[in-house]
Amino acid sequence: MKLHSVNLQKIKITDEFWSKHVNLVKDAIIPYQWDAMNDRIPDAEPSHCLENFAIAAGRKEGEFYGAVFQDTDIAKWLEAVGFTLAANKDPELEKTADEVIDLIAEAQQEDGYLDTYFIVKEPERRWKNLCEGHELYTAGHMMEAAVAYYQGTGKKKFLEVVLKLADLLCDTFGTEEGKIHGYPGHQEVEIGLIKLYQVTGEQKYLNLAKYFIDARGIGENYFLQEMSAPDYKNIFPEFAGYQPAYSQSDRPVREQEAAEGHAVRAVYMYSAMADLAYEYKDEELMESCERLWKNIVQKQMYITGGIGASGILERFTTDYDLPNDCNYAESCASIGLAMFGIRMANITKDASYIDTVERALYNTVLAGIALDGKSFFYVNPLEVWPDNCMDHTSKEHVKPVRQKWFGVACCPPNIARTLASLGQYIYSVGEEAVYVNLFVSNETEIEIGREEVHVSMETKFPFDSRICIKVKNVPAAGIKLALRIPAYAQSYQVCANGQQVEYQVEKGYAYLTLTEEIEVTVTFEAPAKFVRANPNVRADCGKTAIVKGPLVYCLEEADNGKNLSELFIPTDQKIEEVQSTLFGGIIQLVLKGKRMQETAWKEEELYAEHPVTLSDVILKAVPYAYWNNRGMGEMTVWVKELI
Fold first, then answer.
1. Is the overall model pTM greater than 0.70, yes or no?
2. Which position among 131, 410, 411, 554 bears the catalytic label?
3. Whether 131 is catalytic
4. Segment (H or E) for 285
5. Which of 110, 106, 164 is nearest to 139 (CA)?
6. Domains annotated on the chain, with CATH
7. Band of pLDDT at residue 239, cut at 50, 70 and 90
């Protein structure tokens, strides 16, 4: 049986590391994003998101403004609210969300259609541009939001809105005569439909999700057919010369060998494929998921868990093409990778998937938001020189500072919903077992059989690798506790009530059988260390990066001066780990380095025969997740190695 997540209503995160991020959601991120979507952030790009719904509902007059998928900003905001209310009751926030849901319900058309772009701006073009129109993408996010809000509050109004929308989709799309035989240009609705099936048990929603996956890439490409129609109207100019591989529609999903095209679309689709492979016991589809996962993590993923190397069309390129200063690595893509990974882990009970989920969460996802919750990265480079992040160049997508908001703002609310749902990643639950995935201090009640098992975890991870887990109310029949053994863990030990115990290892989990109340302590070493990239990664040849457990570290100008490209690191040294008060308390890494001397060079000399001379310097590294929280400056993850 597939594992499932813990009910967010029954988990309370008390973690020293994560609380300063998770608590931001309710206290800062949700209020800030509410102001952003009401266009109340000075000097920020306008959203007009709620204004679009007011116009569609007939409350106001005006024109649609924003991206074709602007509705999804409020959908993801509502999803974050739903997750937040599950753990933290807040009548005022709930009242605000209910008012938004009332507005959405008013905007919905009589037949269930819900998309303000096509309601307000182009009602005659409904379903005529599935490639670019994002109608199904928007529908999927509405479905995910409604399920989260229902599960967090027990209120059904939003759920009833999206069920009416889902029924319309079931009547509109499929193999039957008279239905549209198309599929989403941007995958997402499949995830939403599957969640609706899981909540309602209504098989037709699962069947439609399966249809959208199975139809993709079969026969003549549907999007090219759309574009050949005499009345076709292009929405995105950059789609001229459209290639089906961009939307993973060039071939059937079961025949795809490598991750291609738009990174977010890809991992959203793979997440749905994993769910469907399990529900339909489709071994061929599961093999495809495993093959695509391996291609991403073994050949197309940054050390930070970022994916999508190209700033043009936000896409995968080719194996080992991982440039550091012009990559995209969209925050949403890493969120999608975590979504894909937790599904694969829950299906296979293989902890290696969690290693990657953890890497994405601790690095790229956290880097996407400032420590005050009020500015954001959409793009996550691994090397930044602010002076060359210029408009109308190949690096115009790279921002040297977090932005207050974006015209296309999919990442900020996506980060919010991910942080608000962190509890879904900490544990997985089986019929007779609790799986510990992430090391995050918390208390929770986990239902196994008909018993409520109390589990608490205390740790100062990732800066200290000692985890104490207390399990109470253990059923008389006993349960299993499966403890993840991270790939980076050294000298891994488990003690039960203070005594070291043996454990059985299977697929990266240490299994213990519990028959009574117990205190389990896991200890391991995760010292800071130097790592190198496969030589086929041209951008990183001759360079080294520094990691500690799941954390990737970087050098910033604030600690190490300008022109970080002048630096070299001898790797035959022990890295010093120093407790610092920076960023609310971290382990800062201190190490010996070398810097090229510029004294021989004259300002007017661009090229010369001057020999390289190096001087000793002390370098300091901080977690990549926190870069740019001290003002604009250079940053790099990879540094030249001195051998």
1. yes
2. 410
3. no
4. helix 283-299
5. 164
6. 48-220 (no CATH), 252-428 (no CATH), 430-525 (2.60.420.10), 529-642 (no CATH)
7. low
